[in-house]
What we know:
Blueprint: H1 5-10, H2 16-29, H3 34-45, H4 53-66, H5 71-81, H6 90-103, H7 108-119, H8 127-140, H9 145-158, H10 164-177, H11 182-193, H12 201-214, H13 219-229, H14 238-251, H15 256-269, H16 275-288, H17 293-306, H18 312-325, H19 330-341, H20 349-362, H21 367-378, H22 386-399, H23 404-415, H24 423-436, H25 441-454, H26 460-475, H27 483-489, H28 494-505, H29 515-524, H30 532-542, H31 548-564, H32 569-582, H33 588-605, H34 609-624, H35 633-641, H36 646-661, H37 671-691, H38 696-711, H39 715-728, H40 734-738, H41 741-748, H42 753-769
Helix pairs in contact: 2-4, 4-6, 6-8, 7-9, 8-10, 9-11, 10-12, 11-13, 12-14, 14-16, 15-17, 16-18, 18-19, 18-20, 19-21, 20-22, 21-23, 22-24, 23-25, 24-26, 29-31, 30-31, 31-33, 32-33, 33-35, 34-36, 35-36, 36-38, 37-39, 39-42, 41-42
Amino acid sequence: MICGEGVLRDLSSYSNARLCREIGKLVHRGHKDDSYIRYWLNAAICKLEEFNAQELSRGIWSLARLGYREDEFIREWVRISIPKLSEFNAQNLSNSIWSLVRLGYRDDCFIREWVAVSTGKLKEFNCQNLSNSIWSLVLFGYKDDAFIKGWVRVSTRKLSECNVQDLSSNMWSLVRLGYRDADFLREWVTVSAGKLKEFNCQNLSNSIWSLAHFGWRDDAFIREWVSVSIGRLGEFNAQGLSNSIWSLARFSYRDDDFIKGWVRVSTRKLLEFNAQNLSNSIWGLVHLGYRDDQFIREWVKVSARKLLKFNAQDLSNSMWSLERFGYRYDDFIEECVRLTIGKLGQCNSKDLSSSILSVVRFGHRNDLFIREWVRVAGVRLRDFNEQSLSNSLWSLGYFGYRDDNFIREWVKVSIGKLLKFNCQNLSNSIWSLAQFGYRDDGFIMEWTRAVDRRLELFNLRDLEQSITGLSCLLFRRDVKLNESELVWMLYPSQTLVRGIEALLRSDVLNTKLMGLYLVSKVSEKWQVQECVSAIIEMLHISLRDQNKGIRIGACLGMLGVISGYGVRDEMVRALLGELRLLLHDSEWVVRNVSCIVLEKLTRMYGIDAYNVSVLLEEVCSLLEAGKVGGASYGVLREMGLRVNVISEKKKILKTMCTAEMRRDKGYEVLDVERRLEDALLNRILEKILCWLGGGKLMLEGAVEALLYDTWEGDDGKKISVCERLYELSFDTGGDVLVEWMELLLSMVREGDWEVIQISYRSIERLGREG
């Protein structure tokens, strides 16, 4: 084009139509001359008031095509065009909004008027007008439901006339607007499936991505899409590759030939992937269950350089994916965790749950991360779904990190969602609370109702874990249990009883220890007797099993049955014989558990004088020889209550005191015995103090040695001693208790706050009573 002085001078005399034709020539020739455009703008801005709708549309469209933005001209153009929009035809309307988007100029007054006018003229829009219009509104971030509904209605009828660019653009725009219309999607899939070979790589990527976002799965379309795309993967850019694998993963559609080709191409192009592309790609492969070690190594190498650009979701997804693949890159994971700490506030509930679960499974403990996670998650628990709730508490339980404020809020939120918990969620939740020793009766009540509805769906692991967790919560020594509440809180279930039978028949031993005790307690109130005979028979056989774990499980199972049911005399005699044999078992643990069962059997059913004498001799001999531990004290206590000969009482006390002073902690390996350890110590203290009476001079030295010996133990022992002395301060004679004043005063000088408080209470009571 000649841009000489004469031509530039002549522009001012051109008509409006000719001015528009002049700028249009530059567009058609693809020639951008900034000097000439400036002259054109100077001439055109003076005449804009005279431009008609066609000329206004043509002028702004030409500037957009040339990529030339002059804000003064555009402002004037917008001011003049707004009142004339009703005169614009469909093409003018489409071109005008498209042009403003391309020029990056937004004016809300113009857009509102444009939408109002265009909504009434949508039927006149052709496919390209429709596509450009909705695309422009998306870029402006402007959503008008009335316009979109009209647009969808008109577009659905015209989809068969659209070219592939319009088809791809339309679907992408609706996704960005978050507007899903089943009729449109159905028609779009039908039309697009026949034109997929004409789609370019970006169209292919956008189309499958859009359908995945809408959750619209059509296997025939996906098969055709895979068939067309697999031969063109080398042309896909990083965004296209990432979107493709992510979309197939969302559909759970696996095609190994496509994935192999995708991995081959993507491995070469990973350096071009941005943070989101990297995160989506590894996430997609995990969900498709396809592992390629070379890709993962290269992915880690590239991602390590770009981790600072990962957002909270990218970090969460990446850690989750690597964990699922079983990869352990300690330095990479450590850096991910460090960066995540500062971005936890940006995480949604799913990302929060996923991040801590991944850290748990990596075995990577970072207390700073956990504290910040608890702080952030604690105020967002109401947004957590049932899976996220279950995972979050399970993860904290695994780390052994207890925060009572968090747990209270977790319980409050979870109670309202328990009916949505699946079997594993229910099992993990009660197990986690048991790990923390945190009991909430309202939660337990709702939990048992939810479990009863789903019990037949529980697998063996979930059933065992549930029973163990609930048992530990309800029957811990330090829990004050109102037995009457169990009648309505834990109503009986035949399915639950059958579940316990299944546990007894299984080879899994680690969670049998408390299960039957729970069932017997629940069933005791309801007299569910029909299943018990079969259970007792299995236990009776198991007591002689070769496997130590089964013998232990049978003993504690029998403990539960004895507690909950009326056992016949002949069964008591048979059990007594079996348990006496177990007193001489080769395993320390089995001998101690049999003592616990013997104590319960003796207390509830009593035994004749002969068996009392034999048992007393056997247990004392075993205790003196160090073959049984503190678990035998209960049996001896029961024996002591049933003998009247002072020499036998003295033998019991001396044996117990001697054994207590030389007790070897190394032998106490049974979980249930550890849980009962304080209770057993309390029992012997109670027994000794209560039995002193007139014979206190005979045993005073031994008792004092015992108390001071136990006082040299850990804080748990000290607290236990204090608690017992406090409880006994009103049950025994003042003369005896005054002698322990000096001991209590020494306890006050200890550094443990709880010990001091209990000691003060004991001294206060002693002062009142003595």
